[in-house]
Amino acid sequence: MAVLVAAGVAARLVNNAAREVSRQSLADQADVVAGQIADTGPGSRTGLRKVTEVLRGQGVDTVLLRGNGELLGASTDAVRAARQAGLPSVTGDESAFKAVQVNGRTLLVELRGTGTKTGVALVREVETAKGTERTLFRNVLFSLAIGLGIAAVAGLLLARVLSRSLRRTAGVAGEMSRGRRDLRAPVEGPREVAEVATAVTTLAPALQYSESRQREFLLSVSHELRTPLTAVTGFAEAIADGVASGDDAVRAGRTIQREAARLSRLVEDLLELARLGADEFRLDMAVLDLAALVRDCAEVWQLRCAREDVALSASVSSSPVPVLADARRLRQVVDGLAENALRVTPAGAPMVFSLTVSGASASLSVRDGGPGLAPEDYPVAFERGVLNARYRDRRPVGSGIGLALVHGLVTRMGGTLTAGPAPEGGAAFTLTFPVRSAEQSGR
Fold first, then answer.
1. What is the pLDDT at residue 326?
2. Which of 24, 54, 201, 368 could form a disulfide with 426 if both were Cys (CB 3.0 to 4.6 A apart)?
3. Regarding beta strands 427-434 and 361-368, do their DSSP bridges make them parallel or antiparallel, or are they unpaired?
């Protein structure tokens, strides 16, 4: 590109330089002819004739202005050009340069005064002057061609040096796409190429970690599916074989119904979690009273907690707390957090719904008096299957999907969900939404 740009600039410079050289040459020749005319010594006429013949051979016509105003020249076009350029009006030692049009040709005319009423004009056609231009341009073009060849060779060598590292990195990426995770790209070459290799190198452990997390999640989901499926299969076989009859058959049917509902809820959570990341996931956002929603939830969960001998208390403002959210999804979030809290809360321990308003935000905490989590588990509480994998052998746990789902729902609705220790001794899950002003609520 640099050579091509240089060629474009050089072409214009050569054109201008050639014109200037042609004009200067014509001026120098005119000075010689004028000197010959002014020379009155012996042989001056012979010298003038020889100079005129030499100029004629170079494509330059000579036109003389005699004292009587007559113009003498070998070429009619040259005489007309000299007349148009103003040779008859040149006096003394005046000089001038003009370009005139004669019969569709552009002629360059250099004028010189050689006496009181005499003068001389040298006439050259532009096409003849272009010969010098073409010679210069050929020389410059030849130099540029050499430069272009050197640039092409240098570019090829540089490309091979750069592409060597890129090819190696591409090979590592190809092996990674086929399942290899133990390869590392060589970090070498220019800074940008080295950055690509570093990115590919760091991608391998990231993929390995992600794949291990997916395997752990699938294992936890498989474990959760296996338990209700075992119960459903066992009781169904008992009914089918006639082992369970009468009241036993009724109890078996209820167990099957309960475990089937558990399976259905698990599958629904998986589908919801999969849809959550899709663009077509729809939310019906509207301004709602968060305080009223919490009171409704507390009324429903009072009965469930009472059956488990868990004391549920609700600390809710009597004033409306307007927030922008999807009412159905927000109720799903609160129910999911309450279900997790009730699962780990032992009989006689408390469970709390607490709604507080601070400045421009409202926070709803669902707290329990269960065993809580280890400090290092709170930051990863909303990652799929993490808590299930860590606690399923020590306490009642869910599938590990519910917390990931509620966290995704709260985030999509514009709120935040955090986890931490609760004053009651267990865990506290707090969701926060901006409070809408009266003007915003009206709109």
1. 92
2. 368
3. antiparallel
